[in-house]
Input
Amino acid sequence: MAPIPKLLKYLGRSPWIYHINTGSCNSCDIEIVAVLTPRYDAERFGVVLVESPRHADILLVTGPVCHQNLDRVKRVYEQTPDPKMVIAVGACSSTNGVFDGSYCIDGPLDDVIPVDVYVIGCPPRPENILFGVVKAIQKLNALAEGEI
Ligand code: SF4
Output
């Protein structure tokens, strides 16, 4: 991963983030908390956690999509205004991980909604989550400039 200061040039806007857990074991969620609290302090780059998907630019999604959450995930995606980015955080969100094959899983996430960035790891390191957010911002900027 590139050093964080080198990534700052991509942070031309303040990304607002909405976090949704679709059935994770909570370890990915704890790493997201680490990203947002003083040790990694993503807020210094303008990253803000919002309480409604209607205010968000980026969805941070953890866990496989369990059947109980299937409609909720789709609804949150629809409620998030365009242009938006979806980040699949962790192995479960990307591939179902250790939950693959379970009777109650409808994931992985990209079977349910479009995914723009995948962050690997079980759980991913906070640096990787932050890097995923930067990649999402790059894609948002490219969208705004008509490059994609
Ligand atoms: S990827 Fe690993 S840490 Fe994250 S929800 Fe799945 S099992 Fe838990």
Observations:
- The two ends are 24 Å apart (CA to CA).
- The chain is about 30% helix and 15% strand.
- Residues 24-25, 27-28, 62-63, 90-92, 97-98, 122-123 surround iron/sulfur cluster (CB under 6 Å).
- The helical segments are 4-7, 27-36, 70-79, 91-95, 126-144.
